[in-house]
Amino acid sequence: MSTRCVINVDLADVWKTPARKDFLRTLAWGDEVVVVGQTAKHVEVEFVFYRQQKDGSVVSAKTTGYICPSASSKIKPADVVTPFANNTVLKVHFVDVQQGDGTLIEAPDGKTILVDGGDNQLFARYLAARYRATSDKNTKHIDCVLVTHGDADHFAGLVEIYKSEQNKAQLKRLFMQPARVYHNGLVKRPKKKNGKTVSETDLLGPTAKSGKKLLLTGLVDDLLAVPDAEMNEPFREWKEALQHYHQRSRIEFRRLAFGDKTAFDFFNTKDWRIELLGPITEKVAGKAALRFLGEPPRGPRVGQESLSTEEANFGGASASHTINGHSIVFRLVYGNCSFLFSGDLNDEASRFLLRQHLAKKINLEADVFKVPHHGSADFSGGFFNAVSPVVSVVSSGDESSRKEYMHPRSTLMGALGKSSRVAEPLIFVTELVAFFQMEGWSRVTDVKKSKTRGTFFGFSRAAFGIVKTRTDGKRLFVYTDSGNVKMKEAYAYDLHSGKAPTPAPVRRA
């Protein structure tokens, strides 16, 4: 009799035979399987198997295999799995989307949140492989799409999910249906209007003066209500995708800011919750507004100036730093485990939050820290100290010289290690956990590009870059894949209320 279950150990190796021969793959804590047989020596499971094709694409199919715990592991087959109804594992996957962010949150009760989506097809491809066999009549329900801020490298990849519905290859399609779309209320305007370049202070909509401060007053709630003429091209494409989803099933649009206590009522339970920490709004004529931010001091920054909570000399008015600095910041808490998501938060805005933390109005401390702005040098050391992370994840990647920012910066990486509350913190970079295998001399298939580029020495992506975290609120497990399917970089911690996590053995069957 088949029973729907989840893996109940950190890692479980699956073999083609009960004699531990012909290795298939490794499953992880919380992964779903169907148990089709069990003895005193093994568990026979049905699971999803991924196989790379000759053209480099990956196809998935169901197959069966055997989990056969070794005697040295001291794990019994009966302890390897637990019924699906008993699942207590929260999954947070940080996906390599090159230059950008893309995170998947899956709660134990099945609630799903997408945080950003990069600016290319990588996030769409990952999700299509994870949520297979969707269609216009069988869409994947997404409880919330949260775009931390309006830079294309955080949401243009979500448009690729919409476009994937028309892909000729079924395995690359994802028909999703978001119930909610949350954002920070800022919409980028076109850089030119009537043939003239738009000023920095007009790129994000109406403004008003309040003393010496310039404030953005035209914050948006419903993105579909914004005229196309007031959106740059990535926003217009995102609006088109949202109109498509909205016509299929009504979407709740919501601008988030600190003080909103009900936005995540759909997600929160007695066991896990999301706390909204930023952006921090101000009032102008009774309406919410966001401060226009400036350029950071010129670098290179090597020293302690970023430890300050005071407002430093952030000169001028910068639309890019403003939209970054007012990223949605939130803290995901499950029992004794906490995650902090920070979008592209910068030094100036970090100091606003740090002052709130020191005044005990918010709590920034987190075990897992999604590092802001891909490892930019525009960071607050004082903010990092308040977070005091055990595990830090930097989402960055090399694509082209046009998108090269030298992320992550070495000063930031050093600050992350120094600010941790444990002696040996973990610092992951998504582009470094991807695995590329050497292919040798190659040519692009496009004839025109081939003539221009000629022969080059090529590499192919053999393993998706994903930092995978799993927790039940009492334990934290973190791992990454490798080009060698048998190898995982894996770490486990026991979690304690009010104390730093302590390292624990990885349980592998």
TrEMBL record:
<protein>
    <recommendedName>
        <fullName>Metallo-beta-lactamase domain-containing protein</fullName>
    </recommendedName>
</protein>
<dbReference type="InterPro" id="IPR036866">
    <property type="entry name" value="RibonucZ/Hydroxyglut_hydro"/>
</dbReference>
<dbReference type="InterPro" id="IPR001279">
    <property type="entry name" value="Metallo-B-lactamas"/>
</dbReference>
<dbReference type="Pfam" id="PF00753">
    <property type="entry name" value="Lactamase_B"/>
</dbReference>
<dbReference type="InterPro" id="IPR052159">
    <property type="entry name" value="Competence_DNA_uptake"/>
</dbReference>
<feature type="domain" description="Metallo-beta-lactamase">
    <location>
        <begin position="97"/>
        <end position="165"/>
    </location>
</feature>
